[in-house]
Amino acid sequence: MSAQFAPGTPVVPRGGLVLLDPADGTVLRVITLQYNPDTITRTLQPQGVGAEPGDRSEALRLRGPAHETIRLEAELDATTQLEDPLAPGNDAVAAYGLLPVLATLDLLVNPTAGALIAQDEAARNGAFEIVPVESPLTVFVWSRERVVPVRLTEFTVTEEAFDSNLNPIRAKVSLSMRILTVDDLGFTHRGSGLFIGHQRRREQLAALHPSDQLRALGLDGPPGGT
């Protein structure tokens, strides 16, 4: 159901996922979060060069982008759509509850039945190497300032209420995603262009934050100075 806004009310964009064809960038599907989560947790693990303590020559070097993980919990509720089942787009919800949107999310981490059958047929026909199925490029969008390629690493669904046919009508979805970098994709991949753009925007935003004065930390000069 399309949201209704009173005149003058600012339209708040919703976060979500965009699935792209990795070859030509065609948009295959857009999945918006029904409600923006109240919190998002980001964890960054620096990729240092020195593998062992005491490797003094490499202590300050970074061998690549940090491994960054994003975690969020989204709420899904079919109540509004069920109140007006004849509205455009609400017929599937009236018939199946939240199963269509949950199935869409399930397919982010599962190959299609057709792909599985094709792999089995290739194996039966004596193929020496079965190439794993390439999934669409998943892009996490959280405002125009943060558009990043990701891989889902964990997906948990808690179904909390059901209709008379046992279709879920209220659920919580927990998503864990790792941002894909040039180390994961290589510089020629379409997703790497998205990551480089994200990194450049992060540098631009960092440049907007002014450096504080040393005296704010109780120092009269550079650390380590005489």
TrEMBL record:
Identification of the protein by name: Uncharacterized protein
Organism of provenance: Nonomuraea jabiensis
Higher taxonomy: Bacteria, Bacillati, Actinomycetota, Actinomycetes, Streptosporangiales
